[in-house]
């Protein structure tokens, strides 16, 4: 809706029937019913009629339909009806798979939700962005992604990236004002638009449009006809399917011509050739893969890793390097005071009791005044809000009986500068206007540079060079123990002008240091060892000091002799070619700002590495986008970081990253299993028909039998293999090479080997049984092929592991095999199906022959697997 930018704010609020205190919950619920969800309608996939139509528009279905028409035209009513029935069954299965794939993807989308801070009933709380309505008053801060179109009520230093709307990467300053009516969208400084990213500052705004009525909703409606590209994995399989399909068409033409030359009935050969082409191309492959990916992604979500893009599964299986943060990812992000240092003594925090030590009292005063943590008590539960180090200091002071709230009352703030990375310190001027005091807290070396005095035994004295060296040594010692260190200093002021606080930051008195520990997360050491076993390198990128970062890296066995550490300052001075040469040797990057991550990622990628990167801030988003796998922190990450990522960790835990890589490898492994099963089995069918005709035998299988074979042996076992249990060594293999084909050398060899065995076995049974009638021979050949397909399903569970290991572990596969056997028995023993498929009942002796032959494929492949295991011929 236009016009909100050119009206006074009071008029906007009146038009929206709201106020600066927002809506009540009841009003919001009523408006939600009126306006609908705050969502951009996206194409959730074709509806049922379109899915059915797509099945019949496929050439794989059209060809047998044409064949059935031909059969009907020449009077072969029986075969025409049977072919149509089987095509309808195959189509039904295809429709079911397509619907299941759509449901799986939609369910996966619902797992990822974002929240907005909205004022309801006079209180600010978290509201699902989908439930925002026009008239809601929302609170926005740096790092947020705008949840709706809104008019600014009040702002403080607000800067927004609107490049997704304007195409310009220059940040836009935003503030409350009234603009001319003809002001274009790109220049509306008083408006916020859904989907844009807040870079800096904060504001309150009133929602004026949601969902399809937003600016981005209007653009999405215009682009509604755009078709989403296929996944890389799907494209690769499409290419494989086309190659295989063309080959099968050529073979089918050869079969038809050979049959004609051999004086076989032309119609029978036409139907057999067409059915062979259809039966050997797995038309449900794409849907099966989508189901496998979505099911695997949901399983990963159960382990706190939400996959936002299904194709990322490919990159997960290929990850060579994980560039990880330290704080909150490797550690618990639960800072607590461990050590307190003054010039007189060095104390462990747990040993400090309430004391009258003047040095400690002064340092505690600085820590209490120069602190933005807030204590909140609710139902006898105390919670702290604010920076982790501020919270740790707050808790420490309270434990010792120093009331932080009392400091706030006794020393009211007059002015100050919040902590900024550029100056590496926080500055507060507090106390009375007549005798204010400057309090400073920050990075030890930065604070020390501003000090000219020291506090020792309650007296101030000159800070000599040996004293500075003593402080530096104490800082290094604490940092080398893996602690984060803060320094505290102060300066008494007089009637000086306190409007320019930074100009007052000189001649400070050094009060002391505090060391904070951040415990290592549970299971991180085990996860790191798992990565090492899997051939994945781990690089720590942190803003902490070099000594702290290296200490933690050593504790986690991430830093070894010969490894290098690089600081952000060194990184800025290192040319690209030098960084590329050193990147594989650097294990720790310290004092790094988020923007510098991009150079590290590019250097590793230029060395051929597949890189996963973690991040949580607005400035992390470029690195997350650049990485092969961008991993955002769900608990502490900004909305901008989450939107730029491929995976969101709900618990910010490094172990969850490893779990995601494990899940990705499992999914990809299972896709390879059922792809191998489908194509290997189909090669056996083609070889049986082709070699039978080349040997001058009658047609071993009829068209209806080929189609039925495809129906009962492809779909269900393939789906069962998609949820197969992982192999034990899946995280002891090196990362999969980028671009490695799904069908590798081992698979190609197995396809040829198993196809040859299937054709030899089925043709041998067919030839031997010919003396008892063609229908009996075809029944035996068909039954033998089904048995061989079933055994092949178990073969395909691993390229190296024996089929005996975990034989009964996949209950889905056992169920699929059971259903296939029941359908086979129905086809052989039920008179109506006997008449349709030209089968005859088999005796106990016949079944003994089939059961004796079927394991041959298993035995041969077991020999190949044994050779692979012992001669290390694994095709990876």
TrEMBL record:
<keyword id="KW-0460">Magnesium</keyword>
<keyword id="KW-0378">Hydrolase</keyword>
<dbReference type="GO" id="GO:0016887">
    <property type="term" value="F:ATP hydrolysis activity"/>
</dbReference>
<dbReference type="InterPro" id="IPR006068">
    <property type="entry name" value="ATPase_P-typ_cation-transptr_C"/>
</dbReference>
<feature type="transmembrane region" description="Helical">
    <location>
        <begin position="776"/>
        <end position="794"/>
    </location>
</feature>
<dbReference type="GO" id="GO:0036376">
    <property type="term" value="P:sodium ion export across plasma membrane"/>
</dbReference>
<keyword id="KW-1003">Cell membrane</keyword>
<keyword id="KW-0547">Nucleotide-binding</keyword>
<dbReference type="InterPro" id="IPR023298">
    <property type="entry name" value="ATPase_P-typ_TM_dom_sf"/>
</dbReference>
<dbReference type="Pfam" id="PF00690">
    <property type="entry name" value="Cation_ATPase_N"/>
</dbReference>
<feature type="domain" description="Cation-transporting P-type ATPase N-terminal">
    <location>
        <begin position="3"/>
        <end position="76"/>
    </location>
</feature>
<keyword id="KW-0472">Membrane</keyword>
<feature type="transmembrane region" description="Helical">
    <location>
        <begin position="847"/>
        <end position="867"/>
    </location>
</feature>
<protein>
    <submittedName>
        <fullName>Cation-transporting P-type ATPase</fullName>
        <ecNumber>3.6.3.-</ecNumber>
    </submittedName>
</protein>
<dbReference type="Pfam" id="PF13246">
    <property type="entry name" value="Cation_ATPase"/>
</dbReference>
<feature type="transmembrane region" description="Helical">
    <location>
        <begin position="746"/>
        <end position="770"/>
    </location>
</feature>
<dbReference type="Pfam" id="PF08282">
    <property type="entry name" value="Hydrolase_3"/>
</dbReference>
<dbReference type="InterPro" id="IPR036412">
    <property type="entry name" value="HAD-like_sf"/>
</dbReference>
<keyword id="KW-0067">ATP-binding</keyword>
<dbReference type="InterPro" id="IPR004014">
    <property type="entry name" value="ATPase_P-typ_cation-transptr_N"/>
</dbReference>
<dbReference type="GO" id="GO:0005886">
    <property type="term" value="C:plasma membrane"/>
</dbReference>
<feature type="transmembrane region" description="Helical">
    <location>
        <begin position="814"/>
        <end position="835"/>
    </location>
</feature>
<keyword id="KW-1133">Transmembrane helix</keyword>
<dbReference type="Pfam" id="PF00689">
    <property type="entry name" value="Cation_ATPase_C"/>
</dbReference>
<dbReference type="InterPro" id="IPR018303">
    <property type="entry name" value="ATPase_P-typ_P_site"/>
</dbReference>
<dbReference type="InterPro" id="IPR023214">
    <property type="entry name" value="HAD_sf"/>
</dbReference>
<dbReference type="InterPro" id="IPR008250">
    <property type="entry name" value="ATPase_P-typ_transduc_dom_A_sf"/>
</dbReference>
<feature type="transmembrane region" description="Helical">
    <location>
        <begin position="705"/>
        <end position="725"/>
    </location>
</feature>
<feature type="transmembrane region" description="Helical">
    <location>
        <begin position="56"/>
        <end position="74"/>
    </location>
</feature>
<dbReference type="GO" id="GO:1902600">
    <property type="term" value="P:proton transmembrane transport"/>
</dbReference>
<dbReference type="GO" id="GO:0006883">
    <property type="term" value="P:intracellular sodium ion homeostasis"/>
</dbReference>
<keyword id="KW-0597">Phosphoprotein</keyword>
<dbReference type="GO" id="GO:0005524">
    <property type="term" value="F:ATP binding"/>
</dbReference>
<dbReference type="Pfam" id="PF00122">
    <property type="entry name" value="E1-E2_ATPase"/>
</dbReference>
<keyword id="KW-1278">Translocase</keyword>
<dbReference type="InterPro" id="IPR023299">
    <property type="entry name" value="ATPase_P-typ_cyto_dom_N"/>
</dbReference>
<feature type="transmembrane region" description="Helical">
    <location>
        <begin position="240"/>
        <end position="263"/>
    </location>
</feature>
<feature type="transmembrane region" description="Helical">
    <location>
        <begin position="677"/>
        <end position="699"/>
    </location>
</feature>
<feature type="transmembrane region" description="Helical">
    <location>
        <begin position="269"/>
        <end position="294"/>
    </location>
</feature>
<dbReference type="InterPro" id="IPR044492">
    <property type="entry name" value="P_typ_ATPase_HD_dom"/>
</dbReference>
<dbReference type="GO" id="GO:1990573">
    <property type="term" value="P:potassium ion import across plasma membrane"/>
</dbReference>
<keyword id="KW-0812">Transmembrane</keyword>
